[in-house]
Amino acid sequence: MAKIKAAILGFGTVGQGIYHIVNEKKEDLKKSLGLDIEISAILVNNLAKERIQTPGVLVTDDFEDIINIPGLQVVFEAIVNEEPAYGYLCKAIDKGCHVITANKVMFSKYSIPLHERAKSRGVFIGYEATTAGGVPVIKTLKNLLQVNSVKRIQGILNGTSNYILTQMRLNECQFNDALTEAQDLGYAEADPYNDISGQDAFRKLMILSALAFKKQPNWDDVRVVGIDGISLEDVKKAKQEGLRYRHVAEIEQDENGELFASVGPQLVGPDHPLYAIEAVNNAVALDTNYIGTLTLVGPGAGMYPTASVMVEDYAEIIGKRAGFMITI
């Protein structure tokens, strides 16, 4: 049986999740794909840091050790910032490796050049994990776009913000109390800026824009507003009127092909597709020309939702590698 050598870049929550799932599902992947995947190496930032045991796996802080592994075919990337992640993926693609990323910060900016680079090298990119975690919006959009065109996308793309707004309404608590609870539960980082400011949702929206419309709006033209300006009094008043605050990222293309995007709080009623989305769930509503509005709902973050869709990307890429066409 053929063996696929893979490497993991970054070994935080998501990287560890990939390692666990690949090993737990090794036999199932062998049966379904006829291939044996082996995690050959893991790139870490600090070799001295204590971490789970990974017997037989090279653990290194030098990317050159990774890229020089003979026969390396797949790279799972779970680093946080634009660099060095973008540089690493460029080198991996140039070597002929398929790449699978969860890095929304990097991919929102470089998705189009990375796809062009991958297409020229005959390799593939998986990026389901960059947007809405365990919600299969990327795969669904790719399938829809074979026949349908998308007119508008609306989404709750950040589970932390949605959790805070839900708790403020259900428990009638102040914003800071709901944020602290989210941090205690591991839904929010110690520095929650990207979540509560709307920057996280904005990056994900730009990834969806590149896929659905083959382009992005000028980033400076997109109004991005967070949820930290919503008070308990605002939430109570909305509740009395039968409305709910949702932090909505949306983008629409007009008849002339121009894109209009925004990210910010909206008041929605029971007839809105995002009204019933609670707690840390994400949701994406896709308005299409033939099937109407399709809404996808699921967990937006966490070790296993994110890592599992990365392994699913691997299975799709390897299973369809012959004659598979890259699309963005």
TrEMBL record:
Binding site for NADP(+): G10, F11, G12, T13, V14, G15
EC number in record: 1.1.1.3
Pathway: Amino-acid biosynthesis; L-threonine biosynthesis; L-threonine from L-aspartate: step 3/5; Amino-acid biosynthesis; L-methionine biosynthesis via de novo pathway; L-homoserine from L-aspartate: step 3/3
Domain Aspartate/homoserine dehydrogenase NAD-binding: 10-127
Keyword Oxidoreductase (UniProt): yes
One Gene Ontology molecular-function label: homoserine dehydrogenase activity
Residues where L-homoserine binds: E189
Family the entry assigns: Belongs to the homoserine dehydrogenase family.
Protein name (Swiss-Prot/TrEMBL): Homoserine dehydrogenase
